[in-house]
Recover the amino acids of this structure.
C-alpha cells in the first residue's frame, strides 16, 4: 500500500478544521497529520510533521496565511515554489472575491478553494495538487484569477521580461512555449492535445518539461510565470 498523502490543516476555526479532518481521514489514501490555528503554528507544524499538503486559511491571527505561505515556500531550501522539499499549499478563502488568494498564488501556493467546497471536490483537489495539477475549481474564483493576472499581464507587456525571466523562457523550445501559452487557458492536457492535434501523452511530456525548465512546482505556478513575464496577454 502506498504511503497516504499527509495533510496539515491551518485555520483559526476549530469547527471547520474538524469537519475537514473528518472528510480527509475517511479516505484510505490520505490522513491529517496536524492542525494549526494561526500562521505561526502552521509554520511550526510544517517543520515538525513535513506534510505533503497544507490547507492554509488566508485570514488567521498572529500571521496571516499569505505571509505564512510566502515564508514557508521561501524557506524550503533555495527556492520557493519549485522546491521539492516544500509542501504543496492550497489556500482557503471564505469569499470568491478575496484577491488575497491571487497573492497567495504568487507566493507559491498551488491553488485555492472556497471554504464551502463540497467534500468530493476537496478530496479531488488534494490529489490533483499533489500530482501537480491546478486547483482552482469554482468558475467565479477562476474568473477572479484570470482577470487579476490579465491586468498584470497588460502591465507586463509594457516592459520587457527581466533577465531572469528571459533566461528561463530561453530554455523552452518553440513547442514548449506554445504549450505554456495553452496551459494558461486552464484547459486539461486532453483539451490541449485535441486543439494542437497531439496525443495527450505528448502534451503531458511537454508540460513536464516546461515545469522542470521553469523551475516551478506545478501548472498554476507555470501560468503565473507566463502572465508575469508577459508571454500571455489575453
Amino acid at each position: 500500500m502506498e504511503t497516504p498523502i499527509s495533510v496539515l490543516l491551518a485555520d483559526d476555526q476549530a469547527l471547520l478544521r474538524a469537519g475537514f479532518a473528518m472528510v480527509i481521514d475517511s479516505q484510505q489514501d490520505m490522513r491529517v497529520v496536524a492542525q494549526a490555528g494561526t500562521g505561526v503554528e502552521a509554520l511550526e507544524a510544517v517543520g515538525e510533521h513535513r506534510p505533503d499538503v497544507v490547507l492554509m486559511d488566508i485570514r488567521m491571527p498572529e500571521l496571516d496565511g499569505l505571509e505564512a505561505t510566502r515564508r514557508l515556500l521561501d524557506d524550503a531550501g533555495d527556492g520557493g515554489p519549485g522546491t521539492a522539499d516544500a509542501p504543496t499549499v492550497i489556500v482557503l478563502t471564505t469569499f470568491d472575491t478575496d484577491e488575497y488568494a491571487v497573492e497567495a498564488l504568487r507566493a507559491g501556493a498551488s491553488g485555492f478553494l472556497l471554504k464551502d467546497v463540497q467534500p468530493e471536490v476537496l478530496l479531488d483537489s488534494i490529489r490533483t495538487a499533489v500530482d501537480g495539477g491546478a486547483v482552482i475549481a469554482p468558475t467565479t474564483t477562476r474568473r477572479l484569477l484570470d482577470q487579476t493576472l490579465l491586468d498584470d499581464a497588460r502591465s507586463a507587456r509594457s516592459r520587457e521580461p527581466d533577465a531572469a525571466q528571459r533566461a528561463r523562457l530561453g530554455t523552452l523550445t518553440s513547442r514548449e512555449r506554445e504549450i505554456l501559452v495553452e496551459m494558461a487557458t486552464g484547459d486539461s492536457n486532453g483539451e490541449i492535445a485535441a486543439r494542437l492535434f497531439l496525443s495527450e501523452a505528448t502534451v503531458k511530456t511537454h508540460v513536464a518539461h516546461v515545469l522542470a525548465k521553469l523551475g516551478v512546482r506545478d501548472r498554476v505556478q507555470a501560468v503565473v510565470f507566463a502572465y508575469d513575464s508577459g508571454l500571455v496577454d489575453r
